[in-house]
Specification:
four-stranded antiparallel sheet, alpha/beta, 5 helices, about 30% helix, single chain
Amino acid sequence: MPGDVNLTLAGAVEGLTFRKDFRFRSCNKAVSNRGHRERHIVPSAAQIRMVNPDRVIQVGVVGTGSIGERHLRVLRQITGVQPVAVSKRLARLEELAKFYVTADSIHEAIELGVRLCIIATDSGSHEQDCLLALDNHLDVLVEKPLAVNAASGARLCAMAANAGSRVFVGC
């Protein structure tokens, strides 16, 4: 189709690789390689594979609301990945413990072996939660928005650089 642009997203973090092919139409809406519209450009669990399938990577998901639980479900489908649900609410931890490894803090999750962290808490908590993860040298995916203002975003970027960690923003 005239005006279409093909794009392949590929990446690797901590031994996980992913690949997804897209075709963009001139209306700027993403169309997957199967022809249906997709709201988010996110690789499915089937398109993510481990570089070293003998190794298990534990990924902490901080915030266990609807978005956090979606991350937990997708991570659970990936061979070689063990999601760790991190919630400050005791009742929620008890509920999630039926399906996932749980922790009541980032520190406890790190003690369980977490090396990567997804921040899916309320927007006002993103900076504090992300700074705590970065202070512990974790690579972090923060759900949007990264921060509530530019100064907060600058602090996160500086902390990531000092810690030698990477920060990604989910959309």
